Amino acid sequence: MMITNVAILGATGSVGRATLDVIARHPERFRVWAVTGHHQVGQLADIARVHQPKVVGVRTGQEASFEASYAHRSAEYAPQPEVVSGTAGLEAIAACPEVDTVVAAIAGAAGLPSVASAIGAGKRVLIANKEPLVMMGEYLMSAATEAGALVLPVDSEHNAIFQCLPTAYRNTVMGQPPQESNETAGGRYPWNVAAVTLTASGGPFLNTPIEALAEVTPTQAAKHPNWSMGRKISIDSATMMNKALELIEACVYFSLPPSAVQILIHPQSIVHSLVEFDDKSVLAQMAVADMRVPIANALAYPERITSGAATLDLAAIGSLDFLTPDRQRFPCLDLARVVATAGGTGPAVLNAANEVAVDEFCEGKVRFTDIVPIVEETVDRMPFSDISGVQQVLDADGRARILAKEVSSRYRL
After folding, report:
1. Domain boundaries, the chain
2. pTM summary value
């Protein structure tokens, strides 16, 4: 069996660590070729000591700090990995000829250039950071087709849909412009797919009185009830902006319009997504809330390997609950449908404004309940345009951040 060389972009985050765990269980199949990190130099050095990558990527200016930290942790005979830095270093790793698979797990818009680089180089790209596909998904999926890259979803919800779809749908429809079948009444879609449903836990404030949300703290908002995730994505789960972004991502991945993507609150996070077909059959993917499950699926696709996750015990769980999202409590879901329909740079603007608003909340400058209004006003005031390339989207992202900062200043506490 050929060994697959894997580059993990964002190795110190929760997805990166879970990926390392899965890979360590299958040394006969995978090798960690490269890892990158941003702030946590010590943790990155620990990862490098254990997994012995050929290349390590760090933030510009942290090269010496990493090398010293690695030398302190490693035996004298341990080989020193090559150290690269900055965006250029990330892009070089993503496109490196020796790398077979790239796991894209850098949070936020910062992950876009390296994802574009990996796709352009024809890699097998496992996307855990939804922002690149939200920001310019149709462009990237088209580029993947041209370059022969295979883009696989690691987000648990999108990976669940991927598993439930017919193989023919995956091979012929995914990544193409949304299309309706003229042969079936009711606006159904290719291969008899009628709709897909993304589930959401509802976050930590699902049952909190709406009037009390203005007083919640960043620490409270970052405590996800089921998943172990980073701070920003946990806060996005509390506002359900995470699910809003996933709606846009699903439209791109599965070539569906927003009207065919539904959201359902499921507090137990056991059913990760559902696919409905024209005959009214519904297929659902279930598993414990453990990111190693979708990571293992994507790493080994089309085969399956052990993930290390626990076995799902439905009898022990007892019951599963499902709720329709409260649009007053979670207004960003309607906003996402508007932006997804508009297309162009709209989703990039939405994402940028949200990153700014969440940062302002984490710094104690605005209230939790100000996050979505800041995003809404930024989206309303920012003109959208068609996408012609990565730099254009990054420029739109930058302008949206400036505008979102201006908008948020009027909400300051």
Report:
1. 4-153, 155-331, 343-413
2. 0.93
